[in-house]
Amino acid sequence: MQSVATTDRYARPIPLRAFFISATAFVVAFIGSVFFRETVAEYGYLMWLLAVIPAFLLCHYRGWSGITLVLGSAMALLTSAYVVCMLAGWEMAEWPVFLFIVAIYIGLALGWGWFREVRQVAEQQQETKHELRLTHAHLRKSHTDLKLARWKLIEAEKLEAVGQLAAGVAHEVKNPLMTLLTGTRYLSEHVPIENSDVRLLLKDMLDAVERADSVITGLLDFSAPRELELRLTDFNELVEKSAKMVKHELNKAHVSLSMHLAKDVPRLMLDGFKIQQVLVNVFTNAAHATPKGGNILARTYRTGRVVLGGNDRVDGVVESGREMVVLEVDDTGIGIEPEQLSKLYDPFFTTKPTGKGTGLGLAVTRQIVDMHHAKIDISNRDEGGARVAIVFNVPGGATHDGEETHSAG
Amino acid sequence: MTEKKRILLVDDEATITRTLRLYLEGTGKYEVRTQNHAIEAVATARAFKPHIILLDIVMPDIDGAEVAEKMKSEPALKDVPIVFLTALVRPGEVAASGSDIGGQPFIAKPLDPDRIVECIEKYTQ
Lengths: 409, 125
Description:
With 409 residues, chain A is α+β, with helices and mostly antiparallel strands.
């Protein structure tokens, strides 16, 4: 950008040019006066008028309005003086006097013109700077939007690819899984097995089938219909219901879950089934991340502004201009490696031990949250452990009451 | 001794029909006939007179929906409950087993055989 826009027009010494033009006209008139002294004595006013006209025309043509104005006035004055002298039959003044008058006019013209030009240039420079600032801000925003759009496009393409893969693979994989599952169950239940290793082997096979099926099911979630069945839903109730669903996981991990659910949380437009899937996934992850004897804290509240953990996928501060409902789930685990934060939503990325996670849970969670035009952010807390925050917009006309604290787990 | 319920399994995957047959017969409650060729399913059903038919949807010769339609047009078979077995990926199909497709119940593969037994009992009351 630099100063390209200003260089061509404003860097030229316009007043200087005007000065040279006027000065040339003046010199021509002066030389004329010297050589045609007697004629000048008689037609002095006309001579000076002739000297001023070209400068006037040039200034007018170039659009130097200040100089044009002054030169025009000079022409009018000279013409008037000439006419008055002619009519009155007065003696013509000596040429140095006219010279002096014209010189003053030219000087005034140059001064005024210069002042106007300088002021104009300064104003235009200010305007240009302002425009540049606006353009810069606009460009920055466009750049950010473009990056976001590109990222979303890549995500969408990735998800679409996974969805297509799921659709193609599921049928071919589910049939053999059915055989394995039924066959293994048959052996476990209907064939007497004395050998404990064989029993263990059959149990491992059943676990393996279950795991393979959960991967396929996770993949199918990507190709599940994108339409939501939105209904005004009691969000706190959904959180409590989801917490009950993970009770077994929590007990298995010897982890407790406390809930502080603000009672003024309004009903939200949600697909209850899908959001429940999200909540169960978030609670399950928290349970897996929290060491034995640890605690998970789930909190809901309504707000107009929320500060998130600074993950690069969402803005740190969300101010939607309308009310929001936030769910925060804090675990007391070891947190997440900073370099892993941006990969958490990638399909098949998992921090869990092999066989314990499919790496699809958060990818599906993210997809469902996006479908609700909500935001999800995962960050490390200063006190230790990780925080998952999900921010929903409150629909208009929602109702609310007081506040209440719940505890479960 | 009570009469065993007759189940007709129609699936082009012989491994599925074989293992499922073993499992279901192992319960001692069912007599199972299998058919891996969809095109012959109606004739088998006509001869076997099943109490329930478990019918795969995606098969090479003729799909399960068409087989079901043919069975429903046979006076002897029109009242026999049909439960679809499916590994298809279509909107709504994977939501939950026990939902129905065009009025017919279905089982999403793979399903725990215990749940299949529950399903059979439910539709053969």
